[in-house]
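Work Package 3 (structural annotation) set out to generate three-dimensional models for the target panel prioritized at the project kickoff. During this period the team completed the workflow that converts sequence records into discrete structure tokens, so that structures can be stored uniformly alongside our sequence database. As a representative example, we reproduce one entry of 469 residues exactly as it appears in the project archive.
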Amino acid sequence: MHVQFCGAAQEVTGSCHLVEVGKKKLLLDCGLIQGRRNDELRNSEEFPFDPASIDAVVLSHAHLDHSGRLPLLVKRGFNGPIFGQRATGDLGRILLDDAAYLLGKEATWENRKRQRQRKPPVEPLYSDDDARKAMRRFKRLDYHAPREILPGVTLTLHDAGHILGSSIVDLDLKADGKQRRLVFSGDLGHRDAPILRDFELLDSADLVLMEGTYGNRLHRPWNDTYEELRAVFTSADARRGNILIPAFAIGRTQNLLYLFSKYYDEWELDRWSIFLDSPMAIRATDVYAIHTDLYDKEAVQVWRPHDNDRLLPNLQYCPSSQHSQRLNTMKQGAIIIAGSGMCTGGRIKHHLKHHVWKDTTHVMIMGYQAHGTLGRAIVSGADEIRLWGETVKVAAKIHTVGGLSAHADADGLRTWYRAFQNKPPVALVHGEADTMRALAKTMHDEDGAKAKVPALGETIDLAHVGSSF
């Protein structure tokens, strides 16, 4: 029995771990590598295993850094089942469809340049047909429902509280007369976050694979974040300008709509017309409305009495580009939620072009903005930005709202680990190397944990797991 770290080892994206049990091979996640251009080019490289040799995949959740290379895996020969929580199946279909569409557009743009340069054309990483083939292999599971997915491999999913359907992967493994319990955290959620229940606690394991995204920092208290939001909405003048909110389509957008409903009166939102201008976010919000059984008790009371059209009395969906374009003529009174969350594409760029040069506009940045993105330039105080070759002055008021992360912070991660009564060894994944090394030291010094930060390609022998630490 072995586990090999094939992705998200000393980096945040590209989650992928190979588990070998007897003669069977199982993947935990198969995610896209995201970030700088050179990083993303690695997605087209060969897998460090033969895709046709993989017997099954377990998907922790639908985000592309965990799911986004599944169509490529199928394209290159994988022919087995993909297991995940049922809501992950619904969200995964949306995300993989969109990823295939964007990859196709990127290839088209690249080939136009290559044609002018008399270079041979390139193919997209995968097609929409590949994405559909991958999702046809998906097997939907419920939480707390053990299932033998391969001989000697029993899978149980537990709620990770990160996004809808996100799962802690609990594997009971048997081979060669030995039995081991491997627990993979997936992405653990931010405790007390809107809508979803908190992550579940497990009490024993022989080896834990734990994410470490925010392993060296703490999130600000929720009440401080809510007060920051209230201050923006109540101080902005709906009679003079608009509010633009770049938002991630899955998770962040639904949390915002929920908070808008909960604090509708307190934040004086009746003064505004609210527009959800993202086809993907609209589809994802419909999925959230289907799976209300996965909500915490408070969210059930807010969301269940409403269908999506009545969640907010002044909420309007903008599914088509024509709907979106009409918003550009609105001079005042609009809250526009649009993707992408880092302003790297999508409809938010058009709204910035039409409104960011006005000093009556407010722009609310709701999440992490990676280096090199348009969103990062805006929060860093750029006086001007470039949009489709045009220089646009930034006169809008920029608000950076922290505290809405969907990931557990350092205290949350350690709280989850401390529930394991036998203090199992822990391999930290899905984080920057320095961040995870700091977390490993803290866990060793304060929690008595044997913790390590495995390198890409490193293998741990599950039959003799203690010797690897």
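The domain at 222-400 is CATH 3.40.50.10890 (Rossmann fold).
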